[in-house]
Amino acid sequence: MQQLTEFTSTLTRSDLEAFWMPFTANRQFKDHPRLFVSAKDMHYTTHDGRQVLDGTAGLWCVNAGHCRSQIVEAVQTQVATLDFGPTFQMGHPGAFQLAQRLTEMAPGYDHVFFANSGSEAVDSALKIAIAYHRARGEGTRQRLIGRERGYHGVGFGGISVGGIGTNRKFFGSLLTGVDHLPHTHNLEHNAFSKGQPEWGAHLADELERLVLLHDASNIAAVIVEPVAGSTGVLIPPKGYLERLRSICDKYGILLIFDEVITGFGRLGASFAADYFDVKPDLITVAKGITNGTIPMGAVLVRQGIYDAFMHGPEHAIELFHGYTYSGHPVACAAGLATLKLYQQEGLFQRAHELSDYWEEAVHSLKGLPHVIDTRNLGLVAGIELEPIAGKPAARAFDCFLRCYERGLLIRTTGDIIALSPPLIIEKSHIDELFGLLAEVLKELP
Ligand SMILES: Cc1ncc(COP(=O)(O)O)c(C=O)c1O
To answer: Signal: is it a keyword of this entry (predicted)?
Structure first.
């Protein structure tokens, strides 16, 4: 703490140089640093001693609020008891307990593969899908289908099935054998929708076209975010996910829901799969699994998938995949404490109960300068701004900086503001959040 205080009180530009910041305008940041030095519940404290209301649960991960004592203590105890233990040919109790807890939360999914991030969870799920078909004697099923404007992390698998041009264009040829469904975002039809938009279920039928093109016997899996977060909160049209599920069923294609942001209560249910009552074959999670405290990701697989691998000699490894830190003891302890806290405080139910109030607050921004759409589901909101001609993303970034100055953390992607607060948020915080945002929107050039 002493070192940190010294660092922030004597901060100069050169102190910030060495860290190549991820997904950040490095030069802008280093000229105008924004550092968080501590956090509690709904607030961060900045290096210059200000309180900032967290409108984004960190990066969609701190669902139970910051520095919750139950999680902090579980981590402290675990790190002092078993700091690390391999899960290759060895085990430790926490990994088995956490996997079991997750399968209890997700009926129908009976095994869990651990990773350390959303990106790794996605790559693991894609590999499991392809290897699963092969294990069943359908080794030609190798093609993967993602969606435009999808975000599945930054591994080569994730950016290949992902659909964000800037995340793909610098990195070469990516995975081969990948196609994309069209995205479902259309303001002409769906602007200012409350909850799921009415228009767009038919866009799932594009999967039929890809099946005709490649033949189902060559397609392993379709991966989508049930609610796309990182490209600006794209809510699935009514009936869309159901249609994807039924086309996948028709052709024996695995359906993967990337629930890295929708998992753990964001929509007011354990998973989006429960909220929409559409059950994919694999679910990827991360972030909220440990309340963001310790990095962790996981893949939940539906009954039957693990079993398909369990043949051959008993001493032989069944899946040649895993990470040194798959099921890390400290992450597992954080995960167990987090899931307990979610349950004890009924946080998913709380998110559900607050979602109407949230919806009203989100749509109260309609009519303010530059606002061309407001949309919401659960405790998620997207507020789309008219871009400044020739300067995409500049207006929303300006809004982000002004909000930060006034004590509010929002997240922006392109010209869209994405909001996803901790599920412990109070109505008074919601009022404060949208009050501040409205003031900033009114003063934006
Ligand atoms: C849907 C989705 N998948 C994957 C990821 C990647 O997770 P990570 O940054 O932990 O690798 C994210 C991160 O925001 C995400 O939103």
So the answer is: no
Strand locations in 140-225 (E): 143-147, 178-181, 219-224
Q: Are 175 and 160 contacting, i.e. CB atoms less than 8 angstroms apart?
A: yes
**Is any ligand 1 atom within 6 A of the Cβ of residue 290?**
no
- Beta strand 178-181 with 143-147: parallel, antiparallel or unpaired? parallel
CA–centroid distance, 160 to ligand 1, in Å, is 14
* Residue 118 alpha carbon to ligand 1 centre in Å: 4
With a 6 A CB cut-off, is 118 part of the ligand 1 pocket?
Answer: yes
The tens digit of pLDDT for each residue in 337-366 reads 999 999 999 999 999 999 999 999 999 999
Domains of the chain: 34-64+346-443 (3.90.1150.10), 69-344 (3.40.640.10)
CA distance linking residue 281 with residue 318, whole number of Å: 19
Compute the distance from residue 286 Cα to the ligand 1 centre, in Å: 7
Which pTM was predicted? 0.97
